[in-house]
Design brief:
The protein is mainly alpha-helical. The chain has helices at 2-28, 36-58, 63-75, 77-90, 94-120. Helix content is 86%, strand content 0%.
C-alpha cells in the first residue's frame, strides 16, 4: 500500500512538472508546428529514467516507486518506452526491439486516428 502512495504522489508531481516544462518550452521555442514542449519533456524524461534506473540497480529502495514509476510515469510514458527499448538492446533482443518499436509507433498513430474517427462520426 505504501508503494501505491508513493506512485500516486510521484505521478501527480510528474504530471504538474510535465505541464509546466512543456508549456514553458513551447512558449520559449516556437519552431513552426514542431511540438517542442512535448519533445523536451520526452528527452528530459528519458534522461531522468536512465539516471534513476542506473541508481536503483545499485540501491534498491521504496524511492524507486516515487521517482521512476510515479514521477517519470507522470512526467512522460515515453521514458518508460525508451527504457524498455534500451533493456531489449542491452539484452541483444534486436528483433524484439525492432518489432516493439515499430508496432508501438505505428499502432499508436493508428489508435489516435481511430479515436478521432470514433468521435468524428
Amino acid at each position: 500500500m505504501r508503494n501505491l502512495f508513493f506512485i500516486f504522489i510521484g505521478g501527480g508531481i510528474g504530471s504538474v512538472a510535465r505541464f509546466l516544462v512543456s508549456g514553458f518550452t513551447q512558449r520559449l521555442c516556437q519552431i513552426g508546428q514542431f511540438p517542442a514542449g512535448t519533445f523536451v519533456v520526452n528527452i528530459v524524461g528519458c534522461f531522468f529514467i536512465g539516471v534513476l534506473s542506473a541508481y536503483f540497480l545499485k540501491v534498491d529502495n521504496y524511492l524507486k516507486f516515487l521517482l521512476i514509476t510515479g514521477f517519470c510515469g507522470g512526467f512522460t510514458t515515453f521514458s518508460t518506452f525508451s527504457a524498455e527499448n534500451f533493456t531489449l538492446f542491452q539484452n541483444g533482443s534486436f528483433l524484439t526491439l525492432g518489432i516493439y518499436t515499430f508496432l508501438s509507433v505505428v499502432l499508436a498513430l493508428l489508435a489516435v486516428f481511430l479515436g478521432f474517427q470514433v468521435i468524428k462520426n
